[in-house]
Amino acid sequence: MASVQTLHLPDKDAKLGCGFDSTCREVTKVQPGSLADQHGVAPGFILMSINGDDSLTGDIKEKLKARPVTLQLGPKEAKEVVTEASPHSPPEPEGVVTLVAMEGSLGFGVSAFPPGGDEDLGEEGGA
Questions:
Q1: How far is CA 75 from the centre of its chain?
Q2: I need a surface site. Which of 5, 7, 8, 24 has the fewest CB within 10 A?
Q3: Model confidence at 107: pLDDT above 60
Q4: Which domains does the chain possess?
Q5: How far apart are CA 117 and CA 30, in angstroms?
Q6: DSSP string covering 58-112, please?
Q7: Coil, helix or strand at residue 44
Q8: Nearest 5°: CA angle at 82, between 67 and 96?
Q9: How far apart are CA 16 and CA 71, in angstroms?
Q10: pTM of the full predicted structure?
Q11: What is the mean pLDDT of the chain?
């Protein structure tokens, strides 16, 4: 299974080595031996973020040309579930961890701790 790749291009001499479709969101070709190829990027991968910004608004082509730049690319199956909290939503409780399965299951189970259950962890914080 292909995974999400983060590639950093530090200066103007750094080349990604792949082509994008007209929207600059999907990889259409990868040059053999290029940085993209070395990191497992393949045609069909999608651009997931530029410099940590996953909104992909504005002139994407110009953002791709800028240096330094950090890109996150992944297979189409690597869909993140984004939930937007309304201003009236209560804040998420401390200690909440969101896990995103790229494909299939995460491979482990999770059980809930009872309210106040952290007291049972002892002085050293448990696990």
A1: 11
A2: 8
A3: no
A4: 5-74 (2.30.42.10)
A5: 51
A6: S-HHHHHHSSSEEEEEE-TT-PPP-----TTSPPPPTT------SSS--SS---P
A7: coil
A8: 105
A9: 10
A10: 0.61
A11: 74
